[in-house]
Amino acid sequence: MPSNSSAVEISGLVKRYDGREIVRRLDLVARRGEITAVLGPNGAGKTTTVECCEGLRVPDSGTVRVLGLDPQTQGAELRPRVGVMLQDGGLPTSVKALEMLTHVSSMYADPWDVGDLVERLGLASFARTTVRRLSGGQRQRLALAAALVGRPELVFLDEPSAGMDPQSRLAVWELIRALRAEGVSVVLTTHLMDEAEDLADRVVVVDHGQVIAEGSPADLVAAGGRATLTFWAVPQLETLSLAAALGAGVQESDPGCYTVSGAVTPATLSTLTRWCADRDILVSRLSTGRRNLEDVFLDLTGRSLR
Questions:
Q1: Residue 231 · residue 239 · CB < 8 Å
Q2: pTM value?
Q3: How far apart are CA 136 and CA 260, in angstroms?
Q4: Helix (H) or strand (E) holding 205
């Protein structure tokens, strides 16, 4: 049975397309009153997983419970309690922004005040503009307002700040935090690591259709126990020789830009500069920094393009 502390519970979820498993016996829990960020490379299965929760896809096997209900058989009970923001907006393009939002609000018994949403998300400047003429960031803000106008207990947000300028993104982040403070559960998918690290109580990393890591952003970052070291020198260094000297991995991420993976200590810096000096190689720039969620994500999912 689903737990009362869980907004979403997924167990053994499988979804196939053309005989290929996109989601492979996936287990995932999003707790009530928390922000859960679902991360993964393109094609990892995260969007398909969330669409099964939203009732937009039918699982091939496994169980999905949203607020304790089955989105396939109890969708009518769920819809008034759940808000959904799709990445492509899913908005009618021929109507004006405010007209659309007002119409959506009329479908709910106790909607969020439209004027308040307009103010919080800065919709007034394009309220009388048709949806087809809005910029990508403006559409995202309108789609978020439409997902929230019904005062949902749980909201699914797909790339909520994609295409937004810094001011709009800040407003969206503040609103998402306000939702959590009011007890609303939030499940968001994003490719912005700083968004996940800043907002999420819990992060779930999905790859090849399975959960490969989960925990708070702080716990995931701390698990590596490493700082980062990046330096710039001539392209195509003998990275194998340098890695052996350092006792750490060395990767040329861009021509002449190298990242050292492993424990970074004062001895690491000393060995690096000595190795380069012995070969008359000038290190033009060097930087160290704390490990962040992007480092964790790349370590888990790889750095190669797919």
A1: no
A2: 0.82
A3: 37
A4: strand 202-207
